[in-house]
Specification:
alpha+beta, 3-stranded antiparallel beta sheet, 6 helices
Length: 160
């Protein structure tokens, strides 16, 4: 069951390749896709939010949230080519079992736009051989598919 949590809560320290960083809880589609990929029933998603407590309080207010959504489509565009070349994506995962055991892993990858293009081009070539039906990329292509993508590196044990 998916349930709402307050934006920016909880906050945890994630062990990224570039070093530890404080991240805050967000509502993201990965809550659902991670469950379908792994069968893990309690998935939380986080992102780095500069000034997370203040940002969470401001964006959590209904009128501010509605105004922000309206403004995003009208006034914001994607990053320029120069910014894309300089940026990278980082992903962190932590899994805990009921007995207190824990495993962590992190990925470092090109910016999200480049990563998406690379993954789509590789997936298209495999379409005829993929299982039919709706699947997440990892359930169709395997948990390590992401490691085949250009510039993706894993730090830590395999989680999966």
């Amino acid at each position: 069951m998916i349930r709402d949590v307050p934006l920016g809560h909880p906050r945890v320290t994630a062990a990224f390749r570039s070093g530890p960083r404080r991240v805050a809880g967000i509502a993201w589609g990965d809550v659902s896709t991670a469950y379908h990929s792994t069968g893990i029933p309690n998935v939380s998603t986080y992102t780095w939010l500069p000034g997370a407590p203040l940002v969470a309080r401001v964006l959590g207010a209904g009128p501010v949230r509605r105004l922000a959504r309206a403004g995003v489509d009208r006034f914001l565009t994607g990053p320029g080519e120069r910014a894309l070349r300089r940026s990278r994506s980082q992903v962190w995962a932590r899994a805990r079992d009921p007995h207190g055991g824990e495993a962590q892993a992190a990925l470092s990858a090109p910016n999200g736009y480049a990563l998406t293009v690379d993954s789509v081009l590789r997936i298209v070539t495999r379409l005829p051989r993929l299982p039919h039906g709706t699947r997440t990329p990892s359930s169709a292509l395997g948990a390590d598919f992401v490691l085949e993508l250009d510039g993706v590196r894993r730090n830590g044990p395999h989680v999966g």
